[in-house]
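User: Hello, beginner here. Can you help me understand these amino acid letters and fold codes? It all follows right here:
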Amino acid sequence: MWQGNMKAAKLKQSEQVELLAFLANCLKNGFSLTKSLQLLPLLWPKRRKQLARLEGADLGQLLAGLGFNKTTVTQLDMALSQGRLDESLAQLALLGRMKNEQVKKLQGELAYPVVLAGMMTLILIFMQNFLSVEFAGSSAKQGDLLLLVLVFLLLLVILLVIIAAAYLKKQDYQSFKKLLTWPVLGPVVALYGQYLISYDLGMLLASGFSLQQMCDFACRQAPGSLQEEVGRRARDAILRGKKVEEVIQKEPFLSQDLLMLLQAGSEREELSRQCLLLSRLLFNRLRQKLSKLIVNVQPVCFILIGLCIIGMYLKLLLPIYDSMQQL
């Protein structure tokens, strides 16, 4: 029954961001976490009964039931245990807002190309029906072949987008690892993972954790999450006699800039501040990469549309040219 209630109360992405910002503001204004969670029905009065049934669950269970991914739940659990929940909530709310803004921007960039593609599809259907009757005996099939290739490419792009969206929604280590091999999305996913791990390292160092303690703590987080997998892999590598530098070089979700910080030989408190600064730098790089990626989406769409127009012209003109030659 409790699991059914949790499933019924799942939030949309925009609502998740709103919840994180609400909890961050409550904690900032002196409310306890328990009191802040009790105030959640104020956000969504229509869900008051659903949210009231969730009282008594710990933070991780509550957020997982509301639809938050493993990575976010793990990061907030780690922040809660280190007494930095308000800071982590604010940071994740900022990241969530950035994601939503980028999605809206992407939708705006794709709106015009999608309308054009829809109109072209209707024209193509008309041309196919008309030309198949008028030029049934024509042997010119180059236009048909080009259009078939373009339709195949379009379907492939749609399939890749669906797969990428499914991986990004899971936000676990294995999904991120698969996306790393993608030519355009891979660098963005790597930056996102490096940002999360650098931020968590900074928090744990500030709390006085040693390297072994950080690995053990990460291994106790949600199974399959980014933090748990990176911590377990790092711990296993160190137990096999690997140096920390080798672990950083081989783990794609550990920023190579960490090597420079370690080589500086700073004290733990100073290293913590440096890791948090690095996380902010990675966050800015992530924002810039996403913006650049979205800006490049529309030109690629127009190139594909241009190729479709060429294909339609070939489909229209080649049969006419072929018929003229046969006269």
